[in-house]
Each structure stands twice: as structure tokens, then as C-alpha cells.
Amino acid sequence: MAQTTQKIKRPKTLYQRFKENSKAQSAATIVMPVLLGVVIVILWQSQALHHLLRTNTFTLPLLTRIGEIFGENLDKIWDNSVATMTVAFVGLLIGSLLGYGVAIFAALCPRVGKGGLTVIGAFASIPVVALAPVMNNWTKDVSDVASVRSMVAKILVVMLIAAANMCLNAYRGLTELKPYAMDLMDTYAAKKRTVFVKLQLPNSVPYIFTALKVSVPSSIITAIVSEYFAEYIIGVGRQIRENIVLAQYPTAWAYIAAACLLGVAAYVVLMIAQSILLRRYH
Amino acid sequence: MSELKEREVEIQIRDLGVTFKDNAGNDVKALTGVNLDICKGEFISLLGPSGCGKTTLLRTIADLQEPTEGTVRISGMTPKEIRLQQKFGFVFQQPVLFDWRTVKKNVELPLEIMYQSKEDRSKRADEMLEMVGLKGFANHFPNQLSGGMQQRVNIARAFGIRPELLLMDEPFSALDEFTKEKLHEDLLRIWRQTNKTVVFVTHNIQEAVFLSDRICVLSPHPGRLSAVVDVDLPRPRTLEMKESEHFNELVYEVRGKFEGGSV
Question: What is the pTM of this model?
Fold first, then answer.
């Protein structure tokens, strides 16, 4: 009994006080990742990382060296980034629109639509590495120009992945309505079209962003991976591969850095768009 | 009541029955043999425990539910005809406000669906929001309001279409006692101003007695109309009446209508 009393009176530990302080918590969400980054940079640049991983500065070049190469090849990196982003963006755009269209169809004609959704769910689980070579093969006769053929193949892969993801999310957005929302529209004798425009469509908007939060990074990754298999040599992903094959590791790392920047930049753009467009939805 | 009997009958329910199929495929009688006349301008409550079919009865009047047997006639027309003419307002248990619309735009929703002009819609929505005391919240979003305020928006939206008939399904059951009392007074004031017929579903005896001209007591298994009680409390009703002996007698009388007195 005496022990429990003592336990209750014990002052809060530093950890407890930190956990209960919301300001410290939100600061920690910024400070901690930055700290981790700084630690990795120090380990990397001081070659401690190389000792840990039993490697050398040839295969894992120092950050300063990668930065140097990045600066020297800025034009080339830019051109390849544009190629990758074009594939990712066009594929994402067409795929998302297509996926949303299929979701609308499934929501309006549930009998046919539900079966279609199962098929699309299956599509979504096909790995990109399997899809990319198949698409290359299928698009052989699309054009006489190799760069165009490859572009089409890569876009098709991104498109399929983005479409499947958007379709499944948008369908939920169009059909998972607030209880009684459909009854309410019925009491107004609202036409099917009106219900769609005034209730289902706006209800699906947050779900579009749920889909994009997955689709935007995955479309860039998909574009990069499909570049590996493409006929025409261009793109950030392809440059990573080519430079590793040629043992030009600093250049390969410069393209890896570019790939990271593209991914982060695209996500930031999406977050800004969401904060503007979703202000009304909480 | 004698005054009511002289009034025009608005809703005529004859031998109404509704049967559902349960998961095992067996027939479940939600309602059977309901006969009821509801007068124009009357405030009538459907009272009973859960499973007595009161919501089913209301939904049948609103054409949200097809009757299995019997008929409902509203001003001589079928519920479907009335619904297609957009002549009734329905207030659900939950506010069912659209999160992406402002409070005012939510009130305007049915008016938009009925192709009213922008000016008319805006004017009507302002009037309705003023009536429910939410004038200053027109440009707020629903999630910025309390549950009671959301339910007021719901009521403003229902009255906005100038319905002949207002159907309310336990609209205040999720609210705290203070908010509920305030909304009871508001509802009675609006009802007096607009003189519409109100069919009000509730499981709360005090609420039914305080609001209604008549109370229809429903019993479960199978759902049926077991008694109709006239409430002769004078209008306008005030909260003080709830303390009166007559009010409590009426509550006692209604309670006695439930079989076994267990409810």
C-alpha cells in the first residue's frame, strides 16, 4: 500500500513531460527527421558509413563528389528529369481520368460495375517489373521512331497503375455516402443526374486526393522502373542503370538524388493543391 | 379535438401493412392494419419503442418505403405523386448536411433541385436561417457548428421548400436536454407561423405530449397502432406547462397505453 502511494507521488519523468507537451511534440516532428539527416550526412561524409557497410568511396562516392557531378551535369539531369516527369505526369493524368470514368460507370451501373472493379483490383496488384516488358512488346508497332514507341510503352504502364488506384478510391467516394443522404435526395424527387452532380461527385473529391497521395509517388517510381526496360535510352531511372553498368557511380548517385527531388517536389505540389482544394472538407 | 374533427383530412391511411424479409428470408411484419386520418395543420406524433414500426410508417407516408398492403392517400394523391411534386419536407434523425456546402448553400440545396432562381434561393435561405436563429452562421461550414445548430439548419432546409407536410423522424433524439427544449420551442413557433401539417416520430413520451395535438401509440411485434391520445394542453405551449399536473396526467395516460406498461 505504501509503495503505491509512493508511485503516485513520483514526479513526472522527462519523457512523460515531453509526451504531454504538444508544442514540443510538433517541434519534434521537424527536428527529429532533420537530426537524422544530419547524422547520416556526417556518417557519409566522414566515411564512417563506408566502414560500417564495408565499402569504399568508389562504389559509395562522398556527398561532395556527388554534388560536384550533379552541378557539372545539370543540363543532362534536367533533360532526363523532364523525360521522366513527362511519362509520370501524362500517365498519371490519363490513368486517373480513365480510372475515375470507370468508377463513375461502376457507381451508376452497379451490376456490371462491381465485377469490373474486381478485375481492376487484380490489375492494381500486377508488379511494374512484370508489366513494363509486356508493354514494350505490345507497343512495338505503334511508331517507327524508337523514342515515341518507348514513350508510349512507359506511359501505358504508369497509366494502368494510376487508373486502377484511382478507380478503386473514386468508386468508394461515389458510393460511400452519409447515412440518409440518398433518402434526402429522394424526398426532393431529385433526378439521378442531379444526385450525381450535387451529392456523389462532391463526395468523391477527398477520395480523389487519397488516390493521388498514393498515385503521385507511385507514378514516378513506375516511370523510373519502366525506363529500365524501355528501348530508347532516356530518363532518370535509365541513367541510374546506365551509369551503374559503366561503373560511373557518382553520376548514378547524382541521378538517384534527382529522382528523390522529383518525388519530393511532386508530393509537395500535391499537398499544396490539396490544402487549397480541400479547405471545405474536414 | 372537436375543432380538429371539423378540419380537412390531409393524410388518409387505410389497412396499411409493411412486410420485410429478414436475412433468413422469413417475412417480418413491420406494420399491420394501420388506419389513421391526419388533419391539415395538425401536429401529430407517432410514439413507440424501437421496432414498433413508427419510422416505417413515416417512411411509407414519404414514399421512401412501399406498402405491402393497404393504401396511403395524401390530399387524394399517392405518396409518390406528392413526393414527385416536392410537397413535403423530411427531417432525418441526423442532420445530413453536405460538408462541402456552407450552411446557407445547404439550405438552398432543395431549392436548387427545384430550379428556383438564384435570388429567390438566397432570399429564402436568409429568411429560414433567421427563423432558426442562425443568421450569423450563413457562411460557416457544417462541421463548424454544434449538433444542435446542425439540426436547426436541417429544419431550416426542410421548411425552406414551403412544404405542405413536414415529416420528422426522431429529429432531436441525439441532442442534449437543454438544446432539445430550445428546439421544441423553436419548432412550435415555426409550426404556428407556417401552419403546416407535422408528423413527428419519437420514442420520448414527454416530447410527444409537449409538442402534439394527438399522439399515436404504436406497439411492436407486429408493429401496429394501439391507441390514439388527444393532447388538450392549450396553445401556445410553454416550458412551464411541463411542470403542470395536467401535463403529467397526460404523460401517465400515454404510458398506460403501452402493453404491460414496461415502456
Answer: 0.81
Do B140 and B215 reside in the same domain of the chain? Answer: no
Q: What confidence score (pLDDT) does residue B169 get?
A: 94
Q: What is the pLDDT of residue B11?
A: 93
Q: Which amino acid is at B167?
A: L
SS3 B214: strand
| β-pair partners for B166 | B89, B198
Task: Quote the pLDDT of residue A36.
Answer: 95
Cell reading at B240: 412551464
- Rounded Cα gap, residues B163 and B68, in angstroms: 27
Those residues of chain B that have pLDDT short of 50 are 1-2, 4, 261-263
Which residues 6+ apart lie within 8 Å of A35 measured at CB?
none
With beta carbons less than 8 A apart as the criterion, state whether A235 and A83 touch: yes
Which domain, by its residues, includes B202? Answer: 2-87+169-261
pLDDT value at residue B25: 82
DSSP, collapsed to helix, strand or coil, labels residue B155 as helix
The chain A residues in contact with chain B (CB within 8 A) are 178-181, 183-190, 194, 198-199, 202-203, 205, 280-282
Q: How many distinct helices (H) and strands (E) make up chain B?
A: 9, 9
How does pLDDT run across A226-271, given as a tens digit for each residue? 999 888 999 999 999 999 999 999 999 999 999 999 999 999 999 9
Long-range residue pairs from B136-139, CB within 8 A, at least 24 positions apart, any chain: B137/B103, B138/B102, B138/B103, B138/B104, B139/B102, B139/B103, B139/B104
Q: Which residues of B touch A190 (CB under 8 A)?
A: 113
Delineate the domains of chain A, giving CATH numbers in brackets.
Answer: 2-52 (no CATH), 73-277 (1.10.3720.10)
**Structure ipTM:** 0.87
Contact check, Cβ <8 Å, B143/A282? yes
Report the interhelical angle of B147-160 vs B118-131 (nearest 10°).
130
Interface test with A, best of B86, B96, B106 (most A CBs within 10 A): B96
DSSP for residue B142: G
Q: Which residues of chain A are modeled with pLDDT < 70?
A: 1-9, 282
Q: Strand pairing of B27-39 and B9-21?
A: antiparallel
- Where do runs of H (alpha helix) occur along chain A? 2-9, 14-20, 22-45, 48-52, 63-72, 74-108, 110-124, 128-138, 146-175, 181-187, 192-195, 201-229, 236-245, 249-277
User: Are the CB atoms for B186 and B132 separated by under 8 Å?
Assistant: yes
**Residues from B in contact with A at Cβ < 8 Å:** 62-64, 83-86, 88-90, 92-94, 96, 98-101, 109-110, 112-114, 141, 143, 161
**Under a CB-based contact definition with an 8 Å cutoff, are residues B169 and B55 in contact?**
yes
Number of domains in chain B: 2
What rounded mean pLDDT belongs to chain B?
A: 89
- CATH number for the domain spanning B192: value is 3.40.50.300
Residue environment code for B184-222, b if the CB has 16+ CB neighbours within 10 A, otherwise e = beebbebbeeeebbbbbbbbebbbbbbbbbbbbbbbbeb
